[in-house]
Amino acid sequence: MLSRRTSPFLALALITLSLGACNKPAEVPPPAPVAPAATTPAAPSPSEVKPNAAAPQAAPELNVATLDGGQYDLAAHRGKWVVVNFWATWCKPCLKEMPELSALDAMRDHVEVLGLAYEEIDTAAMQAFLKKHPVVYPIAIVDTYDPPKAFDTPRGLPMTYLIGPDGSIVDRFLGPVTAHDIEAAIARAGGPKATGA
After folding, report:
1. Architecture of the domain delimited by 52-188
2. Which of 54, 87, 153, 179 has the smallest set of CB atoms within 10 Å of its CB?
């Protein structure tokens, strides 16, 4: 309960944080200790998505089995811009961005997307889900208790990383991302500008 001395800005910030996050349903245990709901970081709206201003980070290592029976080794995709998207089937903002990420992957030869399903779900259930929500990019199921060590444990979903052609992390987005956001980040990092934009 907020006291009368609580500033209106703080009260608004707490309400926004508690309402804006895309949090895991209570019946699925969280992968790590989670702060109380009032202090859980909220996923920003698309207009609030801010690129990471930090310099590129070292090349992350990622080698995962994909649902199509293949293996996705990030190191084997050097020379491309790779979008690594942490998402979940229960996350509405994640589902909203999937068609756009799929179109980006299909339409841009220099961009690839990899979806990392960050939830406890079996392969058959995920394959059934993807029949209803198809994408052209590979999907891998990530162990929420042992996520890829090269990436921060997602504080919220969706969480998206942009990997440069040299393999380094050049940008990251917490919250929904659009193809325009990705292409603008690629251009800022010295990559090709989007045509027809």
Report:
1. 3-Layer(aba) Sandwich (3.40)
2. 54
Element (H, E) at 112: strand 111-118
Say if CB 119 and CB 90 are below 8 A apart: yes
DSSP state of 82: E
**Model confidence over 105-147: pLDDT tens digits?**
999 999 999 999 999 999 999 999 999 999 999 999 999 999 9
d(CA 191, CA 81) in angstroms, rounded, equals 9
Angle between helices 179-188 and 92-107 (to 10 degrees): 60
Q: 168, exposed or middle or buried, with CB in 10 Å at 0-12, 13-18, 19+? A: middle
| 48-105: pLDDT as tens digits | 444 444 455 678 999 999 999 999 999 999 999 999 999 999 999 999 999 999 999 9
**Domain assignments of the chain as residue spans, ordered by start:** 52-188
